[in-house]
Every structure is written in C-alpha cells, then in structure tokens.
C-alpha cells in the first residue's frame, strides 16, 4: 500500500485555474458539464508533498522539492498511463511522462452528478506532461525539451518514478520500470492512511533534510 507524507497543507485552497483543471478531469471521467463539477468541488483540498509506496517507489512533488537543498535527489518525474477509446471503441492505454507537481485530496459530496464517486475520497495527481512522442522510454530513446500545460488525473495512474539525463539541450528519460518493481496503488482508503515523516517512517532518501510539515 502507500502513504501520503509531509510536507502538507491541510487547509489548501486551490486557485481558480487548478479548480478548472480538476473539474476537467471529472468531466472526462464522468461526463457532463465542467461548470457543474466546478461548482460542487470542495473549497479545501488538502495538499501533500510526497507519496511512499511500501516496498516500491518514493515520489516527491515539485511543491515538496522546492523546500529541500539543491543537491537533493529530484524524484518528481514519473511514468503514468492514460486509457482512452479508439475509433472502434477499443480501450487504448498510452504511456506518458511528466513532473508530479501536487497531490490533492478531494472529498466529494453526495450530489447525483458524482455518480459512483459520490461521498468518496479521490486522491488526485497534478502532473505537468513532458512533450514526447508517446513511446515508452523503457524500450527506446525518448527525449523532451519542454512541457504541456498541467493536467489532473487519478494518483493511481502513476506507475513509477523515472530519471532524466540532459544532453544537447534536451532531456532524455531514464525509465527502468519494465525491469524493476512498479508502484501498485490499492484502495483509496489505504492511500489516505496518511502519515507525516515524523510518524514512523524516516526520510526515503538519506540526508535529504526534509522540511517540516506545514499546516494551515
């Protein structure tokens, strides 16, 4: 299972742009009008800086790494997967890479528009996608120069942490996920069994000097 970890802002209020991106995600998943989802989103969505998968990857967000020393390991880049339907209705899974910016906890209400998700806790990842060709860096060379606009998706879409190597003005992605343990996200109830770094587990990277929890 996995545990959300500090730094955290339990009274975090997303700005209008981020709320719009969250509502776009729910529109894509549930159908309906984006503005209706936006109007029913909670005002407060707790913000978390890291997620630790027991026996697997530890992932930081760019929100968390801003608070660390410059020499700290940057494990904010991830491999994630999105599924969509092709022209014949078949399910197609696409591999994507990006920087994990934030982790949000979104408590949904009991309104009918949430359908099967009503009265549930949704753990959302805010990711800034790399501009790639959509191929797997575990199979061939994949490079990028810049990013797309941030997107919001289910945290469970993230499959592993990836590395980067800079060369000739581009970043090459180092993806060892096919040969190593990949993050397996379980029930959302397990995800929200959240702890701060001071509650049991130590830092996932020795000597990082994590900042203290920030609560508002």
Automatic annotation (TrEMBL):
Residues 199-216 have a biased composition (Acidic residues). It comes from the Eukaryota. Residues 193-216 are annotated as: Disordered. This is Uncharacterized protein. It comes from Paxillus rubicundulus Ve08.2h10.
């Amino acid at each position: 299972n996995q545990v959300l970890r500090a730094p955290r802002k339990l009274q975090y209020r997303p700005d209008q742009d981020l709320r719009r991106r969250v509502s776009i995600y729910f529109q894509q998943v549930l159908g309906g009008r984006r503005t209706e989802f936006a109007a029913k989103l909670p005002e407060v969505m707790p913000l978390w800086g890291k997620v630790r998968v027991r026996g697997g990857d530890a992932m930081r967000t760019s929100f968390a790494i801003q608070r660390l020393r410059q020499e700290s390991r940057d494990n904010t880049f991830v491999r994630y997967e999105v599924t969509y339907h092709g022209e014949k209705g078949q399910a197609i899974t696409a591999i994507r890479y990006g920087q994990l910016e934030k982790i949000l906890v979104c408590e949904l209400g009991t309104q009918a528009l949430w359908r099967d998700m009503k009265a549930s806790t949704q753990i959302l990842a805010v990711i800034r996608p790399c501009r790639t060709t959509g191929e797997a860096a575990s199979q061939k060379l994949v490079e990028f120069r810049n990013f797309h606009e941030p997107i919001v998706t289910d945290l469970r879409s993230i499959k592993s942490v990836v590395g980067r190597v800079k060369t000739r003005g581009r970043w090459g992605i180092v993806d060892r996920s096919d040969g190593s343990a990949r993050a397996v996200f379980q029930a959302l109830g397990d995800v929200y069994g959240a702890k701060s770094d001071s509650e049991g587990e130590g830092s996932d990277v020795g000597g990082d000097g994590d900042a203290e929890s920030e609560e508002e």
